Amino acid sequence: MRLNHGMKKIKVMSLLKYITLIFIFLTIPVLKCSICKSRENINKEEISAEIEKIYNFRCDALKTGDYSTLNNYYDTSRPSGRYALEHEVKRAKYLKDWCSKRNIEFKDIKSTINLRKAIPRGNAVRLVIAESYKFDYKYKNDEASPLNSFGVGIRHTASVVKKDGNWLVLSDWYTDCFEDSLQLYTAALNNNLSSSKKYFNNFSSKRKMVYDRKNAVAYADKYCGIAWGNSNNFKYNRKYDDYNGAGGDCTNFISQVLGDKEGGAMRTNGEWHPGTRAWSNADGLKNYLLHSGRGSVIRIGTFDQLTAAISNTSNGVFSKLKTGDLIAYEKGRGNIDHFAIVTGFDSHNYPLVNSHTTDRYHVPWDLGWGNKNIRFFLIHMRD
């Protein structure tokens, strides 16, 4: 009897398991169908057009300094929406002040986006966006000044929500090229900067020796990422790892610029090659270049210190800076945080740089680095 009772119990348990499995298999397609319908209801083209429109309204605020209407495009009922709006207001204030101190006027700022993902999250939609900026500027009171252009590429993780028929920004997280200038930014920056109308000497070299400057700059332009100006369909060089999301890709990119055969063609060695600290860590690369003699310091200083040096001589410290040279950005003594390569000079010979993480193409070298405590290492690369 006990055996029969036990067998019956086992049969009942088995039957329950089968029923449960059947229920799961029947439910999964329904859930998948529900998810598919939810995604089908998302008009990706509509959202993409609206986001690009919102981003270009932000561009207008950056160009004019008038941010009074930006709140129309943010869901300020949520803390994340208020934070996103406040961040854009700070950017507009900073850029207006930056232009004023350098006698620059932006003629146009345009944003083009690539909406890579649109995923429903409740009543909101989570977005993964690649944004490419183009900035056009001229120098004030200079009728002969041609139009100068540079590009910036930014990767966003954002959320939008539809209210009263309009898409509003609920959150917008990204690595901002202006970030280090906004951290201490209030109403206005209080720096007495020298005029940007000082002249710097450009450089062109016909020799190919230890380091090929011309090819290094060409490589930096080709693989500058999603910034306007990229000549490689907005792609990095896939031969190398991408450290975005893992500490930043700026130093890895500069090492590519220096060492790739398509670029500067500097020989790698046991201390400096892909995967080493000297290759992908900013402090590591700075120490390697200076200790090996492949690079030498032209000058170290804050923005005020470097620009003050200009007024003390006919050309200033920047007369020694050449295309293919490097600039390292130090946030706190002994902490190199970023690297960029000098890729050109604008119509007033103001140095322009390329870099990764926030992708930059021919961007004024100090744009976004307004914290007065930041020091810049101007590094000359040995030919």
Automatic annotation (TrEMBL):
TM segment ranges: 12-31
InterPro entries noted in UniProt: Amidase_6
Keywords associated with the record: Membrane, Transmembrane, Transmembrane helix
Pfam families referenced in this protein's UniProt entry, alphabetically: Amidase_6
Signal peptide limits: none
Domain Putative amidase: 211-378
Transmembrane helix keyword on record: yes
Cited PANTHER family: EXPORTED PROTEIN (PTHR40032:SF1), EXPORTED PROTEIN-RELATED (PTHR40032)
Name of the featured protein: Putative amidase domain protein
